[in-house]
């Protein structure tokens, strides 16, 4: 018992140290890779600390996302490379965001706006404002996922070119995974993807593809009913997927090792929570769910690409270089446009 008590005290001390380090790391002198370095820990301690670190990061992300404090627009101008190479950790600034949560606007408000100002194919000022706000939330979720990535040491062990390739391929998929989970947890009655302000992209139409992307994905998440621990582990696995990415063999191995660690933690968590047999069954269900959820995320990305290539130019809507990069999966020309989303 004394040994277990000492081990728990060591784990708690380590977590407290890392949490303080995350909060205080403004200048990034030690580099973001130090935020979740668990090499010196024994395996059980390492797994526990990795999960707790993911949960702590998620707490900070949600605090920023749902705060009534407006997200700093200066970040909307930054390019992907600027965000990737920037050493400071934005999550450490979460205390500057109000603890008061944003109050969602009623659905009918948005429906009336769209009805009174024409269809989304008509470039009215109101429509553009609603679209702009929708895309700002996509940016914020992608941005927060990049900051989350900075707390995972495996990513920062990669060469910069491989880090960038991984984030270009996976950030928007990870962000959509987050958005869908948040819609289920924070809007229990929602039947479609819902943003913190209460808006849903489905309000613009009821065509087959948007329904599949924005509604069926919610049903998929509600059916599996993820807890926070399952969510943060699965999201980390989504972020680290690398099979189809052109990176160095050594980078593939680093990412695969990290995925195996997170997968092992998830399996142990399920067996501890549900018992041996039911835990394995739940784990298998989560792996099948992950395949379905990833497909919905890819469809979501394709829908945004379609909008960027067709409707957006007609409405003279411009995207930031960051959004062009993460949506299209390429490094866009990082110059400032006259207008941006």
UniProtKB/TrEMBL annotation:
Instruction: Output the Pfam families linked to this UniProt entry.
Output: Hormone_recep
Question: What SUPFAM superfamilies does the database record attribute to this sequence?
Answer: Nuclear receptor ligand-binding domain (SSF48508)
Query: Which branch of life, at top level?
Result: Eukaryota
Name the Gene3D superfamilies on file.
Retinoid X Receptor (1.10.565.10)
Keyword list (alphabetical) reads:
Receptor, Transcription, Transcription regulation
Transcription is among the record's keywords: yes
Residue span(s) of domain NR LBD: 94-328
Q: What is this protein called?
A: NR LBD domain-containing protein
């Amino acid at each position: 018992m004394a040994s277990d008590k000492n081990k728990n005290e060591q784990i708690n001390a380590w977590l407290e140290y890392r949490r303080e380090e995350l909060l205080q790391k403004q200048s990034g002198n030690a580099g973001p890779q130090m935020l979740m370095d668990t090499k010196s820990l024994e395996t059980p301690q390492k797994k526990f600390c990795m999960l707790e670190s993911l949960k702590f990061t998620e707490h900070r992300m949600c605090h920023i996302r749902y705060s009534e404090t407006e997200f700093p627009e200066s970040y909307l101008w930054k390019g992907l490379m600027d965000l990737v190479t920037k050493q400071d950790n934005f999550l450490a600034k979460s205390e500057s965001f109000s603890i008061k949560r944003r109050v969602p606007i009623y659905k009918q408000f948005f429906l009336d706006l769209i009805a009174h100002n024409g269809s989304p194919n008509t470039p009215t000022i109101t429509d553009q404002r609603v679209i702009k706000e929708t895309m700002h939330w996509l940016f914020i979720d992608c941005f927060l996922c990049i900051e989350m990535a900075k707390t995972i040491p495996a990513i920062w062990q990669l060469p910069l070119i491989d880090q960038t390739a991984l984030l270009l391929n996976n950030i928007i998929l990870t962000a959509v995974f987050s958005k869908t989970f948040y819609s289920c947890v924070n809007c229990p009655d929602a039947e479609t993807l819902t943003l913190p302000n209460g808006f849903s992209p489905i309000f613009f139409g009821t065509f087959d593809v948007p329904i599949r992307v924005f509604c069926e994905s919610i049903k998929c998440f509600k059916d599996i009913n993820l807890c926070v621990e399952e969510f943060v582990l699965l999201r980390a696995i989504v972020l680290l997927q690398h099979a189809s990415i052109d990176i160095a063999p050594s980078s593939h191995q680093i990412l695969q090792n990290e995925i195996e660690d997170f997968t092992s933690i998830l399996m142990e968590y399920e067996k501890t929570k549900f018992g041996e047999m039911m835990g394995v069954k739940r784990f298998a269900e989560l792996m099948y769910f992950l395949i379905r959820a990833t497909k919905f995320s890819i469809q979501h990305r394709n829908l945004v690409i379609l909008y960027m290539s067709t409707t957006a130019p007609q409405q003279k809507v411009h995207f930031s270089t960051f959004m062009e990069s993460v949506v299209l999966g390429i490094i866009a020309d990082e110059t400032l446009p006259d207008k941006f989303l």
